[in-house]
Amino acid sequence: MPLGQTIATGGASLAESRAAEAEAFRAAVSRLRQARAGGVGRRAAAVRATRRLWQAVLLAVCSPACPLPDALRDGFGLLGSAVLRELEREQPDLDFLIMVNEQVVAGLATYH
Predict the structure, then answer these.
(1) pTM for this one?
(2) Strand, coil or helix: what is 46?
(3) What are phi and psi of 86, to 5 degrees?
(4) CB 77 within 8 A of CB 58
């Protein structure tokens, strides 16, 4: 199930949704870590994938069907905007992006 769908609609059980979301963020962390050691192509691919992930998050939290409390939706909106701004920089700070995504994984871990 796509990340946006699990966040926006609760399409699976809560535990299944949170586990799928956590896995998406873990994958982003893995790609970003590999990008630190890899070349320009690997870095560009990691940035693109991370951008798609956070665009999906923003779409999901802006959906009227999103079941999250308003404060959490607002927080993810602000965080997502900051992440996307970083990703638009000529040389995004991979350490910052890794840290943010790891924090999201840690938060999701309490729910599954």
Answers:
(1) 0.85
(2) helix
(3) -65, -40
(4) yes
